[in-house]
């Protein structure tokens, strides 16, 4: 008879505590941050890559969504895509010009840009100059050379540049002092919002107010003041909803969409309802690029305000998730660029422009999927448009320029040379005006002086190595035998 030993009591596997999960996630995030910090050109590379991908996706989707209306309006299926291609090309040119210029140069002309934007906002209200009220209900455009100029788009970028210029290195605890910069900024911002509201463009006014709020938050203004201003804006929106008109109808359609019940699908809720149908038809993988049915005169503004619905229909859930992911990554790397910028002006500039563009994108996506009321705001870099595409791409060029002028990025280019993108597109080495950080080589002193006068000296310029003078040998003393005599004695 064999005796069997009792099985040892096995301890049940210990379950990890939530604190252990959080500590493990913190270690992974720390390693990820170390990996990103070890790549000084990451912000610059990712920012320009995301912008180029969004611009290319926009050209493709505008081509797909505008073919039917292009044939009806211009008797050619390629009329609207060609126009959008020209606009995007101009926007990429503005992107390249912004990369060529140091962010500090824009600071010197920030006041002039802001004054010009205010004058354009006033000019668009003059009868005979501003147009658009009969077509879309808001007088927001000026026709120049066959293109539509929207001054509110320019003003939204101008307030970022000018606000970053006057609020940099200011004390937010003394924001009500006239010499501290906050009072002039709030007054000019309120004037711009009033002028945009007078145009009848409530959606753009809300978007402009969001940009102003972000600038104040990044400048250090307490959240209590921002909350009070937001509450005042909410009261105004309620007043607009109670006043009646088509804006009030948009709010009613919004509440209907939240509960999934549209009352007037052939009237006031027609556009939102068709957008819902487009997203539903797309399902997971979409019906295929160019195969949208909603663009055949079912969905109004398919190439502009509701282009995300066409993306969801043709590319499916994955296409919509791709667009949301790209804008989320743009937000992350834009804020990371602001955190790693050279000074507070550049940090405020990058953070304000990035949050303004990304918030506009999420507002557009939000009202297409029914989470927000329809406001008529375009999807940046994707929707068809003239001024919007050029100004948005130029503004993102400013953010990429700030990323290109990060101290680590400049040091990497000084030591290892410019990346391939900069060499192909003839981008100069990033420099900062007024930073005399190095001693020029005597052989190239004239060329270096000319470069410093035009572009400034590099941030991390090192003194040129100088040869040490050869040590002079003393002439050998004549031997006269006195030393040996001295030793002997």
UniProtKB/TrEMBL annotation:
E.C. no? 2.4.99.28
Spans annotated as Disordered: 1-23, 436-489
What is one Gene Ontology biological process annotated in the Swiss-Prot or TrEMBL record? peptidoglycan biosynthetic process
Primary location:
membrane
- Membrane topology note: Multi-pass membrane protein
Cell compartment(s), UniProt: Membrane
Give the transmembrane region(s): 49-72, 84-102, 109-129, 141-167, 179-196, 202-221, 228-246, 315-335, 347-369, 381-403
Where on the tree of life does the source sit, at the highest rank?
Bacteria
Q: Which GO terms describe its molecular function?
A: lipid-linked peptidoglycan transporter activity; peptidoglycan glycosyltransferase activity
UniProt function note:
Peptidoglycan polymerase that is essential for cell division.
What does the similarity note say? Belongs to the SEDS family. FtsW subfamily.
Q: What name does the UniProt record give this protein?
A: Probable peptidoglycan glycosyltransferase FtsW
Origin species: Corynebacterium genitalium ATCC 33030
